[in-house]
Design a protein that fits this description.
disordered N terminus; alpha/beta; 6 helices; single chain; 238 residues
Length: 238
């Protein structure tokens, strides 16, 4: 029995969309890494870092999920970095690192550590570097039209929809031992996702936040360890 021409054309359209769209969307993913260094860093095996959300005047800081992703990446790999739990660190140093009372500049840490008991509490955590993380992932554009419906014995979708997201994050590094800013690392990733309705919806998702997390984590590792001993990132630009 032959296949009706309409059915074969529909199947061919789905196959073409499935094959071509990943290539199209891959070319629409762009990533950038920026680094600014103010002083050398050389983290020791018994020293750690803590990643905190940068206090915001309005609204929330970086998402907890993104902070957890960066922390998890830094604690793994060939040269792991000891990352102290952020909530635990803030609780131990209460109220000095609460959003409303945290030092606004690295140079203010000297006065903070001079307070009775504060320096001892910081030393007990083993934390040398505070990483203030700021940024978010946002939808920046989108369009298209996708319609789905169901009838007795049949269901499906037709159309095409797309959306663009941007992940923009910056990590500012403070050296608590020297009460100075060591520098900053930033990443910006944009990507276009789409869904094709060819009876069965076919989603093609650009993982912009996951890419931003990986890029930022890799660059932070290089920032602390140096290019000779850290795992190399995928590149400055792509």
């Amino acid at each position: 029995m032959g296949i009706p021409a309409a059915c074969s054309r529909q199947a061919a359209a789905r196959m073409v969309a499935a094959a071509a769209l990943p290539l199209i969307l891959a070319s629409c993913m762009q990533a950038r890494i920026d680094e600014s260094r103010e002083m050398p860093t050389n983290i020791a095996a018994d020293e750690g870092v803590v990643i905190l959300a940068k206090p915001q005047v309005e609204g929330a800081g970086s998402e907890d999920g993104f902070m957890d992703c960066v922390s998890g990446n830094l604690t793994g790999g060939r040269r792991p970095i000891r990352v102290h739990g952020n909530d635990e660190f803030v609780d131990k140093l209460f109220p000095w690192f609460e959003p409303s009372t945290a030092p606004a500049r690295a140079e203010a840490v000297s006065a903070l550590l001079a307070r009775p008991g504060v320096g001892e509490r910081v030393a007990a955590t083993g934390v040398r570097y505070v990483v203030w993380l700021d940024g978010a992932t946002r939808k920046t554009d989108g369009g298209g039209s996708l319609a789905c419906g169901a009838a007795p014995g049949a269901a499906g979708c037709i159309g095409f929809g797309w959306w663009e997201k941007e992940s923009d994050y910056e990590a500012i590094v403070w050296d608590l031992h020297q009460s100075k800013s060591a520098g900053s690392v930033g990443t910006n990733v944009t990507g276009t996702s789409a869904i094709v309705g060819a009876v069965i919806p076919l989603p093609f998702i650009a993982r912009v936040q996951g890419t931003a997390c990986k890029r930022l984590s890799d660059q932070l590792r290089l920032f602390f360890y140096g290019t000779d001993s850290a795992e190399q990132p995928a590149g400055k630009r792509s």
